[in-house]
Each structure stands twice: as C-alpha cells, then as structure tokens.
Amino acid sequence: MTLCDDIRLQELMTAIAADKGDEIAQVDRALADFPDDPRLHFLRGSLLAAIGRPIEALSALKAAVALAPDFAIARFQLGFFQLTSGEAGDALSTWGPLALLPDGHYLRTFVAGLTYLIRDEFAAAIEQLRLGIATNEENLPLNRDMQLIIDRISELTAGDAGDETMSATSLLLGQFSGRSN
Amino acid sequence: MKATRETGLDIVTDPVRAEASLWRRARFEDDSRSRETLFNRYIVLARSIAARHFGWRRRAVDRGDLEQFAYEGLLQALDRYDPLLGVPFGAYARPRIAGNVADGMKRMSDLDAQLSQRQRLRQERMRSLGPIEAAPADPLAALADLAVDLALGLMLEGTGMVEQADGIDRRPTPYEGLAWRQTQAAIAAELERLPANEGAVIRQHYHTGLTFAHIADLLRLTRGRVSQLHKSAIERLRRRLRHH
Fold first, then answer.
1. What is the pTM of this model?
2. pLDDT of amino acid A172
3. I need a surface site. Which of A4, A22, B57, B141 has the fewest CB within 10 A?
C-alpha cells in the first residue's frame, strides 16, 4: 500500500480549505495516484457527505474502513453516517470493532452513548455522550455533534421537542478544514 | 401533543440520507422492500396528480383508472430515476406521472371507461380466489370458503387502513355493529402477522388499490405469483380468524 505523503496531503487540505468548488476533483486526482490511501477515501467521503451526495459518500467511507480496519475515526464516522441514514443495525455492526479501543477512549464512549440512544435509553445516552465530550480533546468538531444530540434528547425528554428533526449532518469535513457544512 | 413519540433514532436521522439509503438499497442492492417503501412514500404525489387530471377530464372516466395510470408512471419513474444525479425524486417523477396519466386517458376506450377500476380489481381478486380444482371433493365447503374469502376482501377494503380514492372515510361508525368492528380489528391485527410478501400484496391491493400486474412490478414478482400470494394470504386470514 502506497500512501500519499504528508506534504501532498497538507497541500490538498489547504486547497480544500480555499473552497474553490473543485475539491472532489482534487481528491480524485490524488486518489488516482494513491488509490489505496484510506485517508483520501475518508476525505472524499467527507466531502461528498458535505455536498449532499450520500450514496457515493457511503461508498467512499466504506472503502476507507475496508482499506484500514483500524482507522478508528473513519470507522466511527462511517457508523455515524449509517446511523444518520436511519440504518442503526449497520451502524452497530460498523462500530463493533471500536469496542477493542482502550477503556475510556472517547470514540468507545460515544458509541456507548449512541447505542443507548438507539434503544431510547435517553438518560444513559446523555451520560455517556457527556463523558465522551469530557475526554475528547483531539476531535473537537465531534464534540459539537454530540452536544447537538444531547440538546435534542433534552428537548425531547422535556416534552417540548420541536418538529424539526436535527440534521446531524456529521462534521466530517470539519475535521480536515474546520469549516462546517 | 405529538401523535407519535419521537425515538432516539428519529433524533439523529437525516431525512435526505435516509431516503438516499432507500435508493441505494432499492437500486444497487436489489432490495424490493426499499422499493416498496419508496413507492409508498410517493404514492400521495401520484394520487394528487391523478386527482388534478380527474378535475380536468372531458369525458366520463373512473378516478381509480387515473390513479392506476399514475401508479404506473410512478413505478416507471422509480426504475428510471438516477439517484446519483442529485435531482429530487419528486421533481423528476412529477412530469412523468402526469404524462402517463394523460397518455393513459387517451388510450382508454369507452368500454374501458365504463368498467370502473374497482370492478376490475374485484374481478381480478375473484379469479385469484376461484377454486383450483375442477371438481372439489366437497363443493359446498369450497363454496363456503370462497364466500368467506370474498367477504374478507370486502372487509379488508373497509378496514379504514387507508383513505379510499374518493376521500371518504369508511372506518366503522359507532352505529355499526360491534361484531363487525371487532372482526375488522381482528383482521387488521392478523395482517401484521402475515408473511412479508403476502402482507405486501394485501396492503398494496386493498390499501392502495394496485392491480396484481402493478404489484408484480413493484415487488419484482410474476403476476401469477402475486395472485398465488393473494389467495394464500386470504386463506391464512380465514383460518386464523376462525379462532377468534
């Protein structure tokens, strides 16, 4: 497996942050040179998710995880993408191997919280999501997503939930460029 | 107060992604259940287009016929739509459904127009339920079963599971007999327990009013198989209801 070197990856990230509208084409060019680089597939999936091309986004995220089964953040985001697509069973299957992360790892804690959420066990979900946020210092956009979910659960359990379903469009792109979709 | 309680999954589900997931399964994974879900999701669109054409009609046509043309257009649109192009399905399907309704009206002969869609559905149903054996061992029992099966069909039409084409709510009123209402409730409960394909045929035939041909198209089955599933579902309901 030949990986894209860090300099080129950084150049790619800078180009994407410039937001010229040709991000996918740029990633595709990099992928043509490094078809087995899971980070590029993950990046492509993130971009496709951000611009509303979910079918292709899912394929790209799956490709990233298939190439690098231990790529934990890609695995978490693939599962989260499946969850936000209403495919809870698929999400749980994808997240399964994250149980092997060290006890207390924020991704493992987030998975526990989201699993409680799927079961409608809201109090336990909030507790785990809060715990995950408290321990996650390396992926701050993810904390924002999880906080949105906590807020939504709180509204729901308070009995005054609004009609609008939270989009929960995951901030995959934010992990690379810091911009939200 | 909300009619249905929001679940944890509802909180995080993005409707656009959820629909994309249905398209992926229906189109690239050949999942007929997802196709049926998409059809059910857009049936209101098909009905509204049929209703508009019904308002514009220049000769006697049955509204049920226009709905069949609309359903046909919807099924074709489901097959031809490319979910990767980013065009919303509703925008893609609307002109195709309308075109199919307009073409269908032009094709209809006066004779077709005289025979209402409801009559056609009942004929189709009758053929499906008709005894297979030329000379059943107990003709009277076979006839009694057939009568019960046809009565079941009438009750299924009236379970109020879905509003009828004419918009009239046929759910039982408090003045209707308790026994009738209890039987309808029992049927509705038993419908949930039918095998998946049988349940789908019954729902689409009696709820939506689809012909067997359209159900076959929707579920990727042959028309003969749909007829068999219909017969077997009705027989199963009859057997189970005997225990009520």
1. 0.73
2. 46
3. B141
Of all residues in chain A, the one with the smallest CA distance to B3 is A163
Give the chain B residue whose CA is nearest to the CA of A163: B2
What are the distances in angstroms from CA A115 to CA A15, A79, A168, B8, B35? 36, 11, 16, 9, 28
Q: Which amino acid is at B138?
A: D
Of A53, A84, A88, the CB nearest to B86: A53
> What is the residue-averaged pLDDT of chain B?
80
Query: What confidence tens digit (pLDDT) does each residue in A30-39 have?
Result: 999 999 999 9
Provide the residue count of chain B.
244
**Percent of chain A surpassing pLDDT 70:** 87
Compute the 3-state secondary structure of chain B and give helix, strand, coil in percent, each to the nearest 5. Answer: 70, 0, 30
What token pair was written down for B115? 């025979």
Is the Cα torsion angle B21, B23, B24, B25 positive or negative in sign?
positive
Q: Provide the residue range defining the domain that includes A81.
A: 6-177
Q: Is residue A1 part of a domain?
A: no
Which of A176, A175, A113 is closest to A149 using CA atoms?
Answer: A113
- Between CA A179 and CA B39 the distance in angstroms is 37
d(CA A161, CA A155): 5
**Structural domains of chain B, with CATH:** 8-114 (1.10.1740.10), 117-241 (1.20.140)
Within 13 A of A43's CA, how many CA atoms are on the CB side? 28
Q: How many domains does chain A have?
A: 1
Question: How near does any CA of chain A get to the CA of B215, in Å?
Answer: 26
Distance from CA of B3 to the nearest CA of A (A): 12
pLDDT at position A178, please? 37
**Residue of chain B whose Cα is closest to the Cα of A114:** B8
Residue type, B55: G
Q: What is the pLDDT of residues B113-139, one digit of tens each?
A: 556 666 777 777 777 776 555 566 666
CB B44 within 8 A of CB B183: no
Q: How far apart are CA B179 and CA B116, in angstroms?
A: 31
What CATH number has the domain bearing residue A119? Answer: 1.25.40.10
Percent of chain B with pLDDT over 70: 73
User: Which pLDDT belongs to residue B63?
Assistant: 81
CA distance B211 to B71: 10
What angle (nearest 5°) sits at the alpha carbon of residue B137, between those of residues B153 and B227? 35
The residue among B5, B10, B14 with the most chain A CBs within 10 A of its CB, best to mutate, is B14
Residue A66 lies in a domain: yes
